[in-house]
Amino acid sequence: MAIDGQEDRSTKLIQIGIALSSERNLDRLLEMILDLARDLTHADAGTLYLVREESQDLKFEIAHNQTLGTRVGGTSGNEAKIPPVPLVRDGSPNLANVSAYVANTGQLVNIPDVYEAEGFDFTGPRKYDEFTGYRTKSMLCIPMRNHETEIIGVLQLINALDPATRQVIPFASEHVDLTSALASQAAVALTNAKLIQDLKNLFDAIIKSIATAIEEKSPYTGGHIRRVAELTMTIAQAVNETTDGPFAGIHFTPDEMEELRIAAWMHDIGKITTPEHVVDKSTKLEAIVDRIEMIKARFDSIRRDCETSALKKKIDLLTTGTADPDQLHQIDEELNQQLTQLDDDLNFIVTINKGGEFMEDEKLERLRAIARRTYTANGEERPYLTENEVYNLSIKRGTLNLEDRKIIENHALMSIKMLRELPFPKKLKHVPEYAGGHHEKLNGKGYPFGLTADQLSLQARIMAVADIFEALTAHDRPYKKPMPLSKAIQILGFFVKDQDIDKDVVDLFVKQHIFEDYAKREMDPTQIDEVKVQ
After folding, report:
1. Last-in-domain residue among 138, 161, 196
2. What is the mean pLDDT of residues 478-495?
Protein backbone atom coordinates (compact mmCIF):
# COMPACT_ATOMS: atom_id res chain seq x y z
CA MET A 1 0.00 0.00 0.00
CA ALA A 2 2.88 2.32 0.81
CA ILE A 3 4.30 1.71 -2.65
CA ASP A 4 0.92 2.44 -4.23
CA GLY A 5 0.71 5.69 -2.26
CA GLN A 6 4.19 6.66 -3.34
CA GLU A 7 3.31 5.97 -6.98
CA ASP A 8 0.15 8.06 -6.65
CA ARG A 9 2.16 10.97 -5.23
CA SER A 10 4.77 10.67 -7.98
CA THR A 11 2.07 10.62 -10.63
CA LYS A 12 0.48 13.68 -9.06
CA LEU A 13 3.79 15.54 -9.02
CA ILE A 14 4.33 14.73 -12.70
CA GLN A 15 0.85 16.04 -13.51
CA ILE A 16 1.56 19.14 -11.44
CA GLY A 17 4.85 19.71 -13.25
CA ILE A 18 3.13 19.52 -16.62
CA ALA A 19 0.44 21.94 -15.48
CA LEU A 20 2.96 24.40 -14.06
CA SER A 21 5.18 24.34 -17.13
CA SER A 22 2.28 25.11 -19.46
CA GLU A 23 1.09 28.25 -17.63
CA ARG A 24 2.64 31.53 -18.78
CA ASN A 25 0.48 34.11 -17.01
CA LEU A 26 2.31 35.07 -13.82
CA ASP A 27 -0.79 35.81 -11.75
CA ARG A 28 -2.46 32.55 -12.73
CA LEU A 29 0.79 30.68 -12.11
CA LEU A 30 1.12 32.09 -8.60
CA GLU A 31 -2.50 31.20 -7.95
CA MET A 32 -1.92 27.67 -9.20
CA ILE A 33 1.21 27.17 -7.07
CA LEU A 34 -0.55 28.11 -3.85
CA ASP A 35 -3.68 26.14 -4.69
CA LEU A 36 -1.65 23.01 -5.47
CA ALA A 37 0.45 23.35 -2.32
CA ARG A 38 -2.65 23.68 -0.15
CA ASP A 39 -4.27 20.74 -1.90
CA LEU A 40 -1.21 18.51 -1.37
CA THR A 41 -0.95 19.34 2.33
CA HIS A 42 -4.64 19.85 3.12
CA ALA A 43 -3.70 23.36 4.33
CA ASP A 44 -6.50 25.70 5.31
CA ALA A 45 -4.54 28.82 4.37
CA GLY A 46 -1.35 29.90 2.68
CA THR A 47 0.77 32.80 1.52
CA LEU A 48 3.28 33.14 -1.29
CA TYR A 49 6.14 35.64 -1.19
CA LEU A 50 8.62 36.51 -3.91
CA VAL A 51 12.16 37.79 -3.30
CA ARG A 52 12.95 41.30 -4.52
CA GLU A 53 16.71 41.71 -4.89
CA GLU A 54 16.62 45.44 -5.50
CA SER A 55 14.78 46.25 -2.26
CA GLN A 56 16.04 43.22 -0.30
CA ASP A 57 12.65 42.08 0.90
CA LEU A 58 9.91 39.50 0.41
CA LYS A 59 7.01 40.91 -1.57
CA PHE A 60 3.61 39.59 -0.57
CA GLU A 61 2.03 38.25 -3.76
CA ILE A 62 -0.95 36.08 -2.86
CA ALA A 63 -2.84 34.67 0.16
CA HIS A 64 -5.76 32.26 0.60
CA ASN A 65 -7.77 31.43 3.70
CA GLN A 66 -10.51 28.86 3.26
CA THR A 67 -12.07 29.27 6.71
CA LEU A 68 -12.36 33.04 6.32
CA GLY A 69 -13.27 32.75 2.64
CA THR A 70 -10.63 35.24 1.56
CA ARG A 71 -8.39 35.34 -1.49
CA VAL A 72 -5.99 38.25 -1.91
CA GLY A 73 -3.59 39.02 -4.77
CA GLY A 74 -3.09 36.86 -7.85
CA THR A 75 -6.18 36.69 -10.03
CA SER A 76 -8.58 37.50 -7.18
CA GLY A 77 -8.88 41.18 -8.04
CA ASN A 78 -8.32 42.02 -4.37
CA GLU A 79 -5.28 44.21 -3.90
CA ALA A 80 -2.58 42.90 -1.59
CA LYS A 81 -1.92 45.67 0.95
CA ILE A 82 0.31 43.68 3.31
CA PRO A 83 3.75 45.34 3.62
CA PRO A 84 6.85 43.42 2.45
CA VAL A 85 9.01 41.46 4.87
CA PRO A 86 12.56 42.87 5.07
CA LEU A 87 15.35 40.40 4.43
CA VAL A 88 17.90 42.65 6.13
CA ARG A 89 17.66 44.59 9.37
CA ASP A 90 20.37 46.86 10.72
CA GLY A 91 22.79 45.49 8.17
CA SER A 92 22.29 41.84 9.16
CA PRO A 93 20.05 39.09 7.73
CA ASN A 94 16.57 39.15 9.22
CA LEU A 95 16.15 35.83 11.01
CA ALA A 96 13.30 36.88 13.28
CA ASN A 97 10.47 36.63 10.75
CA VAL A 98 10.00 33.02 9.78
CA SER A 99 9.51 33.75 6.06
CA ALA A 100 12.67 35.92 5.99
CA TYR A 101 14.57 33.21 7.89
CA VAL A 102 13.63 30.64 5.26
CA ALA A 103 14.59 32.99 2.42
CA ASN A 104 17.92 33.86 4.03
CA THR A 105 18.96 30.39 5.14
CA GLY A 106 17.27 28.17 2.57
CA GLN A 107 16.02 25.90 5.39
CA LEU A 108 12.39 24.89 5.60
CA VAL A 109 10.54 25.42 8.88
CA ASN A 110 7.77 23.11 10.15
CA ILE A 111 6.03 24.39 13.31
CA PRO A 112 3.25 22.40 15.03
CA ASP A 113 1.93 25.45 16.94
CA VAL A 114 3.20 29.00 16.37
CA TYR A 115 1.86 30.10 19.78
CA GLU A 116 4.23 27.67 21.49
CA ALA A 117 7.22 28.05 19.15
CA GLU A 118 10.35 29.87 20.16
CA GLY A 119 13.02 31.63 18.12
CA PHE A 120 10.72 33.56 15.77
CA ASP A 121 8.66 36.73 16.01
CA PHE A 122 5.03 35.79 15.44
CA THR A 123 3.60 39.21 16.30
CA GLY A 124 2.12 39.45 12.80
CA PRO A 125 0.10 36.19 12.94
CA ARG A 126 -1.07 36.99 16.49
CA LYS A 127 -2.36 40.41 15.40
CA TYR A 128 -4.01 38.85 12.37
CA ASP A 129 -5.75 36.30 14.60
CA GLU A 130 -6.83 38.98 17.04
CA PHE A 131 -8.28 41.09 14.26
CA THR A 132 -10.05 38.27 12.35
CA GLY A 133 -10.85 35.74 15.05
CA TYR A 134 -8.78 33.16 13.22
CA ARG A 135 -6.42 30.77 15.07
CA THR A 136 -3.06 30.29 13.35
CA LYS A 137 -1.55 27.03 14.58
CA SER A 138 0.55 24.73 12.39
CA MET A 139 2.81 26.39 9.84
CA LEU A 140 5.06 25.11 7.07
CA CYS A 141 7.51 27.50 5.35
CA ILE A 142 9.41 26.20 2.34
CA PRO A 143 12.01 28.00 0.20
CA MET A 144 11.41 28.10 -3.55
CA ARG A 145 14.67 27.38 -5.39
CA ASN A 146 15.05 27.78 -9.12
CA HIS A 147 17.22 25.69 -11.44
CA GLU A 148 20.29 27.69 -10.35
CA THR A 149 19.50 26.92 -6.67
CA GLU A 150 18.70 30.59 -6.05
CA ILE A 151 15.87 31.24 -3.63
CA ILE A 152 13.27 33.28 -5.49
CA GLY A 153 10.39 33.00 -3.04
CA VAL A 154 8.84 31.44 0.06
CA LEU A 155 5.76 29.25 0.25
CA GLN A 156 4.05 29.56 3.62
CA LEU A 157 1.23 27.13 4.46
CA ILE A 158 -0.96 27.44 7.54
CA ASN A 159 -3.11 24.97 9.51
CA ALA A 160 -2.93 21.50 8.02
CA LEU A 161 -6.37 19.86 8.34
CA ASP A 162 -7.13 16.21 9.09
CA PRO A 163 -9.14 15.07 6.02
CA ALA A 164 -11.51 13.07 8.22
CA THR A 165 -12.11 15.36 11.21
CA ARG A 166 -11.15 18.75 9.69
CA GLN A 167 -9.19 19.43 12.85
CA VAL A 168 -5.93 21.38 12.69
CA ILE A 169 -2.90 19.06 12.85
CA PRO A 170 0.85 19.48 12.30
CA PHE A 171 2.11 19.15 8.71
CA ALA A 172 3.04 15.51 8.11
CA SER A 173 6.59 14.66 7.03
CA GLU A 174 5.43 13.08 3.74
CA HIS A 175 3.58 16.30 2.96
CA VAL A 176 6.73 18.27 3.67
CA ASP A 177 8.65 16.21 1.10
CA LEU A 178 5.88 16.56 -1.47
CA THR A 179 5.59 20.30 -0.95
CA SER A 180 9.36 20.72 -1.18
CA ALA A 181 9.30 18.96 -4.53
CA LEU A 182 6.36 21.10 -5.60
CA ALA A 183 8.18 24.27 -4.48
CA SER A 184 11.18 23.34 -6.62
CA GLN A 185 9.00 22.64 -9.65
CA ALA A 186 7.07 25.84 -9.03
CA ALA A 187 10.25 27.90 -8.73
CA VAL A 188 11.54 26.65 -12.07
CA ALA A 189 8.16 27.24 -13.73
CA LEU A 190 7.96 30.69 -12.17
CA THR A 191 11.49 31.56 -13.31
CA ASN A 192 10.68 30.43 -16.84
CA ALA A 193 7.45 32.40 -16.90
CA LYS A 194 9.21 35.51 -15.60
CA LEU A 195 11.99 35.04 -18.12
CA ILE A 196 9.47 34.80 -20.95
CA GLN A 197 7.66 37.88 -19.64
CA ASP A 198 10.95 39.75 -19.27
CA LEU A 199 11.87 38.85 -22.85
CA LYS A 200 8.47 40.05 -24.05
CA ASN A 201 8.93 43.29 -22.11
CA LEU A 202 12.39 43.70 -23.60
CA PHE A 203 11.10 43.03 -27.12
CA ASP A 204 8.28 45.50 -26.55
CA ALA A 205 10.72 48.13 -25.30
CA ILE A 206 12.95 47.59 -28.35
CA ILE A 207 9.95 47.98 -30.66
CA LYS A 208 8.97 51.26 -29.03
CA SER A 209 12.53 52.54 -29.00
CA ILE A 210 12.76 51.86 -32.75
CA ALA A 211 9.48 53.73 -33.22
CA THR A 212 10.90 56.64 -31.24
CA ALA A 213 14.06 56.64 -33.37
CA ILE A 214 12.00 56.70 -36.58
CA GLU A 215 9.88 59.59 -35.39
CA GLU A 216 12.95 61.53 -34.28
CA LYS A 217 13.91 61.69 -37.97
CA SER A 218 11.16 64.30 -38.37
CA PRO A 219 9.71 66.79 -35.89
CA TYR A 220 6.49 66.70 -37.88
CA THR A 221 5.59 63.03 -37.44
CA GLY A 222 6.20 62.61 -33.71
CA GLY A 223 3.63 60.29 -32.19
CA HIS A 224 2.41 58.95 -35.53
CA ILE A 225 3.38 55.34 -34.86
CA ARG A 226 1.94 55.36 -31.34
CA ARG A 227 -1.33 56.89 -32.54
CA VAL A 228 -1.68 54.40 -35.41
CA ALA A 229 -0.90 51.47 -33.11
CA GLU A 230 -3.40 52.53 -30.46
CA LEU A 231 -6.11 53.28 -33.02
CA THR A 232 -5.52 49.95 -34.76
CA MET A 233 -6.01 48.07 -31.50
CA THR A 234 -9.13 50.08 -30.64
CA ILE A 235 -10.71 49.10 -33.97
CA ALA A 236 -9.67 45.46 -33.51
CA GLN A 237 -11.20 45.40 -30.03
CA ALA A 238 -14.42 46.83 -31.48
CA VAL A 239 -14.44 43.95 -34.00
CA ASN A 240 -14.18 41.51 -31.08
CA GLU A 241 -17.08 43.18 -29.28
CA THR A 242 -19.37 43.24 -32.33
CA THR A 243 -22.26 40.77 -32.13
CA ASP A 244 -24.00 41.52 -35.43
CA GLY A 245 -23.18 42.63 -38.95
CA PRO A 246 -20.20 41.52 -41.05
CA PHE A 247 -17.92 41.04 -38.02
CA ALA A 248 -20.36 39.03 -35.90
CA GLY A 249 -18.50 35.77 -36.44
CA ILE A 250 -15.01 37.22 -36.16
CA HIS A 251 -13.03 37.25 -32.94
CA PHE A 252 -9.30 37.84 -32.66
CA THR A 253 -7.62 35.59 -30.10
CA PRO A 254 -5.22 37.13 -27.54
CA ASP A 255 -2.29 35.87 -29.64
CA GLU A 256 -3.78 37.43 -32.78
CA MET A 257 -4.30 40.70 -30.94
CA GLU A 258 -0.68 40.66 -29.80
CA GLU A 259 0.45 39.86 -33.34
CA LEU A 260 -1.51 42.84 -34.67
CA ARG A 261 -0.25 45.13 -31.92
CA ILE A 262 3.38 44.34 -32.73
CA ALA A 263 2.73 44.79 -36.46
CA ALA A 264 1.13 48.18 -35.81
CA TRP A 265 4.07 49.37 -33.73
CA MET A 266 6.49 48.20 -36.46
CA HIS A 267 4.53 49.26 -39.54
CA ASP A 268 6.92 52.13 -40.34
CA ILE A 269 10.19 50.43 -39.40
CA GLY A 270 11.27 50.69 -43.04
CA LYS A 271 11.47 54.47 -42.66
CA ILE A 272 14.79 53.92 -40.92
CA THR A 273 16.21 53.69 -44.47
CA THR A 274 14.36 56.78 -45.76
CA PRO A 275 16.53 59.92 -46.05
CA GLU A 276 15.64 62.63 -43.53
CA HIS A 277 15.27 65.32 -46.20
CA VAL A 278 12.49 63.25 -47.82
CA VAL A 279 10.75 62.21 -44.59
CA ASP A 280 10.92 65.82 -43.43
CA LYS A 281 10.13 67.50 -46.76
CA SER A 282 7.87 70.28 -45.55
CA THR A 283 7.87 72.28 -48.82
CA LYS A 284 8.09 71.37 -52.51
CA LEU A 285 11.53 72.90 -52.95
CA GLU A 286 13.06 71.52 -49.79
CA ALA A 287 16.10 69.26 -50.18
CA ILE A 288 18.91 69.68 -47.68
CA VAL A 289 17.64 73.27 -47.40
CA ASP A 290 14.50 74.93 -48.70
CA ARG A 291 15.49 76.27 -52.13
CA ILE A 292 12.79 78.93 -51.96
CA GLU A 293 15.48 81.08 -50.36
CA MET A 294 17.54 80.82 -53.55
CA ILE A 295 14.55 81.98 -55.58
CA LYS A 296 13.98 84.87 -53.19
CA ALA A 297 17.63 85.91 -53.60
CA ARG A 298 17.29 85.58 -57.38
CA PHE A 299 14.17 87.74 -57.47
CA ASP A 300 15.91 90.26 -55.25
CA SER A 301 18.73 90.39 -57.79
CA ILE A 302 16.23 90.82 -60.64
CA ARG A 303 14.61 93.63 -58.66
CA ARG A 304 17.94 95.40 -58.34
CA ASP A 305 18.59 94.92 -62.08
CA CYS A 306 15.22 96.53 -62.84
CA GLU A 307 15.99 99.45 -60.55
CA THR A 308 19.48 99.83 -62.05
CA SER A 309 18.09 99.74 -65.59
CA ALA A 310 15.49 102.41 -64.77
CA LEU A 311 18.09 104.59 -63.09
CA LYS A 312 20.40 104.25 -66.12
CA LYS A 313 17.59 105.34 -68.46
CA LYS A 314 17.05 108.44 -66.32
CA ILE A 315 20.76 109.27 -66.26
CA ASP A 316 21.00 108.90 -70.07
CA LEU A 317 18.06 111.29 -70.58
CA LEU A 318 19.43 113.80 -68.11
CA THR A 319 22.95 113.58 -69.58
CA THR A 320 21.77 114.25 -73.15
CA GLY A 321 19.46 117.01 -71.96
CA THR A 322 16.46 115.41 -73.62
CA ALA A 323 14.65 114.43 -70.44
CA ASP A 324 11.22 115.80 -69.63
CA PRO A 325 8.97 115.12 -66.62
CA ASP A 326 6.62 112.87 -68.61
CA GLN A 327 9.48 110.61 -69.73
CA LEU A 328 10.87 110.35 -66.23
CA HIS A 329 7.40 109.62 -64.84
CA GLN A 330 6.86 106.90 -67.45
CA ILE A 331 10.15 105.24 -66.46
CA ASP A 332 8.99 105.24 -62.79
CA GLU A 333 5.61 103.79 -63.77
CA GLU A 334 7.21 101.00 -65.75
CA LEU A 335 9.56 100.25 -62.86
CA ASN A 336 6.67 100.14 -60.37
CA GLN A 337 4.77 97.73 -62.63
CA GLN A 338 7.82 95.50 -62.95
CA LEU A 339 8.45 95.48 -59.20
CA THR A 340 4.78 94.87 -58.40
CA GLN A 341 4.73 91.97 -60.85
CA LEU A 342 7.93 90.56 -59.33
CA ASP A 343 6.52 90.76 -55.82
CA ASP A 344 3.24 89.21 -56.90
CA ASP A 345 5.00 86.37 -58.74
CA LEU A 346 7.33 85.70 -55.81
CA ASN A 347 4.42 85.61 -53.34
CA PHE A 348 2.66 83.14 -55.68
CA ILE A 349 5.77 80.90 -55.77
CA VAL A 350 6.18 81.06 -51.99
CA THR A 351 2.51 80.08 -51.54
CA ILE A 352 2.50 77.10 -53.91
CA ASN A 353 5.82 75.92 -52.46
CA LYS A 354 4.04 75.12 -49.19
CA GLY A 355 1.98 72.43 -50.89
CA GLY A 356 -1.12 73.19 -48.87
CA GLU A 357 -3.39 73.90 -51.82
CA PHE A 358 -4.25 71.79 -54.86
CA MET A 359 -2.49 73.00 -58.00
CA GLU A 360 -5.18 73.71 -60.59
CA ASP A 361 -4.30 74.00 -64.29
CA GLU A 362 -4.51 77.81 -64.10
CA LYS A 363 -1.82 77.89 -61.40
CA LEU A 364 0.38 75.51 -63.38
CA GLU A 365 0.11 77.74 -66.46
CA ARG A 366 1.01 80.83 -64.42
CA LEU A 367 4.02 78.97 -63.01
CA ARG A 368 5.20 78.08 -66.50
CA ALA A 369 4.69 81.66 -67.68
CA ILE A 370 6.90 82.95 -64.85
CA ALA A 371 9.53 80.33 -65.70
CA ARG A 372 9.62 81.48 -69.34
CA ARG A 373 10.72 84.99 -68.34
CA THR A 374 14.44 85.67 -68.41
CA TYR A 375 16.98 87.98 -66.81
CA THR A 376 20.64 88.62 -67.49
CA ALA A 377 23.42 87.66 -65.08
CA ASN A 378 27.11 87.99 -65.91
CA GLY A 379 26.20 88.61 -69.51
CA GLU A 380 24.21 85.35 -69.70
CA GLU A 381 20.46 85.15 -70.23
CA ARG A 382 18.81 82.90 -67.64
CA PRO A 383 15.22 81.82 -66.86
CA TYR A 384 13.44 83.07 -63.74
CA LEU A 385 13.05 79.43 -62.63
CA THR A 386 15.13 76.34 -63.41
CA GLU A 387 13.60 73.18 -64.86
CA ASN A 388 14.02 71.35 -61.55
CA GLU A 389 12.34 74.17 -59.64
CA VAL A 390 9.40 74.15 -62.05
CA TYR A 391 9.20 70.36 -61.79
CA ASN A 392 8.95 70.46 -58.00
CA LEU A 393 6.68 73.50 -57.82
CA SER A 394 4.30 71.75 -60.27
CA ILE A 395 3.50 69.03 -57.68
CA LYS A 396 -0.28 69.06 -57.63
CA ARG A 397 -0.84 67.91 -54.07
CA GLY A 398 1.46 67.87 -51.07
CA THR A 399 5.22 68.38 -51.27
CA LEU A 400 6.56 65.13 -52.74
CA ASN A 401 7.52 64.70 -56.37
CA LEU A 402 7.42 61.33 -58.13
CA GLU A 403 10.95 60.38 -57.07
CA ASP A 404 10.33 61.47 -53.47
CA ARG A 405 7.11 59.48 -53.37
CA LYS A 406 8.86 56.34 -54.62
CA ILE A 407 11.47 56.74 -51.89
CA ILE A 408 8.73 57.17 -49.27
CA GLU A 409 6.68 54.28 -50.64
CA ASN A 410 9.73 52.05 -50.51
CA HIS A 411 9.49 52.10 -46.70
CA ALA A 412 6.61 49.60 -46.86
CA LEU A 413 8.71 47.12 -48.82
CA MET A 414 11.67 47.75 -46.54
CA SER A 415 9.44 47.12 -43.50
CA ILE A 416 8.54 43.72 -44.91
CA LYS A 417 12.16 42.88 -45.78
CA MET A 418 13.46 43.92 -42.36
CA LEU A 419 10.71 42.13 -40.45
CA ARG A 420 11.15 38.94 -42.46
CA GLU A 421 14.73 38.84 -41.18
CA LEU A 422 13.47 38.54 -37.61
CA PRO A 423 12.84 35.00 -36.29
CA PHE A 424 9.26 35.58 -35.14
CA PRO A 425 7.63 32.62 -33.36
CA LYS A 426 4.79 30.86 -35.12
CA LYS A 427 2.07 32.87 -33.37
CA LEU A 428 3.65 36.10 -34.69
CA LYS A 429 4.42 34.88 -38.20
CA HIS A 430 2.04 37.38 -39.86
CA VAL A 431 3.70 40.49 -38.40
CA PRO A 432 5.63 41.30 -41.64
CA GLU A 433 2.49 40.84 -43.75
CA TYR A 434 0.29 43.06 -41.58
CA ALA A 435 2.96 45.72 -41.03
CA GLY A 436 3.87 45.99 -44.70
CA GLY A 437 0.30 45.90 -46.00
CA HIS A 438 -1.05 49.13 -44.52
CA HIS A 439 -0.60 51.01 -47.83
CA GLU A 440 -2.22 48.34 -50.00
CA LYS A 441 -5.66 49.09 -51.47
CA LEU A 442 -8.62 46.82 -52.12
CA ASN A 443 -8.63 47.89 -55.80
CA GLY A 444 -5.02 46.78 -56.30
CA LYS A 445 -3.65 50.32 -56.69
CA GLY A 446 -1.70 50.35 -53.43
CA TYR A 447 1.89 49.46 -52.68
CA PRO A 448 4.33 47.76 -52.37
CA PHE A 449 2.80 44.74 -54.14
CA GLY A 450 -0.49 46.04 -55.54
CA LEU A 451 -2.49 43.42 -53.63
CA THR A 452 -6.26 43.15 -54.20
CA ALA A 453 -9.15 42.69 -51.79
CA ASP A 454 -9.01 38.89 -51.83
CA GLN A 455 -5.31 39.03 -50.88
CA LEU A 456 -5.60 41.45 -47.98
CA SER A 457 -6.19 40.29 -44.42
CA LEU A 458 -8.67 42.03 -42.12
CA GLN A 459 -5.74 43.03 -39.91
CA ALA A 460 -4.03 44.89 -42.77
CA ARG A 461 -7.32 46.55 -43.70
CA ILE A 462 -7.81 47.77 -40.13
CA MET A 463 -4.30 49.20 -40.00
CA ALA A 464 -4.82 50.96 -43.34
CA VAL A 465 -7.87 52.81 -41.98
CA ALA A 466 -6.00 53.76 -38.80
CA ASP A 467 -2.98 55.01 -40.76
CA ILE A 468 -5.06 57.10 -43.16
CA PHE A 469 -7.23 58.65 -40.45
CA GLU A 470 -4.19 59.58 -38.35
CA ALA A 471 -2.55 61.22 -41.37
CA LEU A 472 -5.72 63.14 -42.24
CA THR A 473 -6.25 64.52 -38.76
CA ALA A 474 -2.64 65.14 -37.66
CA HIS A 475 -2.30 68.80 -36.67
CA ASP A 476 1.51 68.99 -36.71
CA ARG A 477 2.16 68.79 -40.47
CA PRO A 478 3.77 72.02 -41.75
CA TYR A 479 2.52 71.58 -45.31
CA LYS A 480 -1.21 71.50 -44.55
CA LYS A 481 -3.76 73.10 -42.31
CA PRO A 482 -5.28 70.94 -39.56
CA MET A 483 -8.25 69.14 -41.09
CA PRO A 484 -11.67 69.35 -39.42
CA LEU A 485 -12.99 66.04 -38.09
CA SER A 486 -16.05 66.10 -40.36
CA LYS A 487 -13.88 66.52 -43.47
CA ALA A 488 -11.63 63.61 -42.43
CA ILE A 489 -14.69 61.36 -42.09
CA GLN A 490 -15.92 62.60 -45.46
CA ILE A 491 -12.60 61.76 -47.10
CA LEU A 492 -12.71 58.26 -45.59
CA GLY A 493 -16.03 57.93 -47.41
CA PHE A 494 -14.37 58.95 -50.69
CA PHE A 495 -11.67 56.31 -50.13
CA VAL A 496 -14.39 53.71 -49.58
CA LYS A 497 -16.18 54.81 -52.75
CA ASP A 498 -12.96 54.44 -54.73
CA GLN A 499 -12.48 50.96 -53.20
CA ASP A 500 -9.22 52.00 -51.57
CA ILE A 501 -10.17 50.89 -48.05
CA ASP A 502 -12.61 48.47 -46.42
CA LYS A 503 -16.19 49.76 -46.14
CA ASP A 504 -17.07 47.47 -43.24
CA VAL A 505 -14.09 48.64 -41.19
CA VAL A 506 -14.92 52.30 -41.88
CA ASP A 507 -18.59 51.72 -40.99
CA LEU A 508 -17.55 50.16 -37.69
CA PHE A 509 -15.09 53.01 -37.08
CA VAL A 510 -17.82 55.61 -37.60
CA LYS A 511 -20.93 53.92 -36.19
CA GLN A 512 -19.15 52.83 -33.01
CA HIS A 513 -17.96 56.47 -32.62
CA ILE A 514 -14.34 55.32 -32.40
CA PHE A 515 -13.35 58.48 -34.28
CA GLU A 516 -14.89 60.67 -31.56
CA ASP A 517 -12.90 59.07 -28.74
CA TYR A 518 -9.73 59.37 -30.82
CA ALA A 519 -10.44 63.02 -31.60
CA LYS A 520 -10.85 63.90 -27.93
CA ARG A 521 -7.51 62.25 -27.09
CA GLU A 522 -5.33 63.22 -30.01
CA MET A 523 -6.76 66.10 -32.06
CA ASP A 524 -6.59 69.83 -31.53
CA PRO A 525 -9.92 71.06 -30.08
CA THR A 526 -10.28 73.52 -32.98
CA GLN A 527 -10.50 70.58 -35.40
CA ILE A 528 -13.40 68.87 -33.67
CA ASP A 529 -16.67 69.80 -35.30
CA GLU A 530 -20.02 68.07 -35.70
CA VAL A 531 -20.11 64.79 -37.60
CA LYS A 532 -23.45 63.35 -38.63
CA VAL A 533 -23.46 59.58 -38.31
CA GLN A 534 -26.13 57.83 -40.37
Report:
1. 196
2. 86
